[in-house]
Amino acid sequence: MANNPLIEMQHISKSFGGVQALSDVSIDLYPGEVMGIVGHNGAGKSTLIKILSGALRADEGDILVQKKPVAMRSPRDARAHGIETIYQTLALADNLAAPANIFLGRELKGKFATLEEKRMEDETAALLKRLKLKLPSLKDAVKELSGGQRQAIAISRAIYFNAQVLIMDEPTAALGPQETAQVAELTKQLKAEGIGIFLISHDLHDVFDLCDRISVLHQGQLVETVRKEDVSKDEVLGMIIMGKEAKA
Fold first, then answer.
1. Domain 7-242, what fold?
2. Which residue intervals of the chain are DSSP H helices?
3. CA 159, CA 82: separation in Å to the nearest integer?
4. pLDDT tens digits along 220-242
């Protein structure tokens, strides 16, 4: 693992009215690492990733990108720092094909602001080849594709725009075994390329298959961050339910 983390979230706190959603949470992420973030609904997972992605602002705490403090005022700020979020909804335009989705809102344009559709199609083909992904056709609307293929397009979009950190929110939810395996293989390939991944999941099988470390949140607090090989699934489940450290 590289010496310097890609991301450090230090002493993050956030409240909504009288509800303390996060209290003094610190996590980090290294290049080529998959960090699992787990916990029950209401544990603070979504709030934490929304702060990192610029959708929410922390009340207290700091975010460092490659050891430098940064301000995350909006998702645009996060993208400028190489952080892309792939939400469970994927945010794909169902009636558009893969190239149009990958470049959605960031279309390649030539002279007189005309869309370079052929170039976007060629760039998409090259990207999918690099990621070892196959689609039936680059002309098909994404609504015709499988859940795993749609997930791959959302990931590809982030990678094309030079993401160094991916936040993946329940990436295998509602996918079958074959599609889940496809997303898992893509995740491993991105890890091999040095991309850091925050994986938010309720599925401990996915977490133990893909993650290097696991951070457990309980009622807005960080219970513990552990290396996967140092704990069992039962111990992590106990941390999620009881909010106590694995060896406590």
1. Rossmann fold (3.40.50)
2. 45-52, 75-80, 98-102, 117-130, 147-160, 177-192, 204-210, 233-242
3. 9
4. 999 999 999 999 999 999 999 99
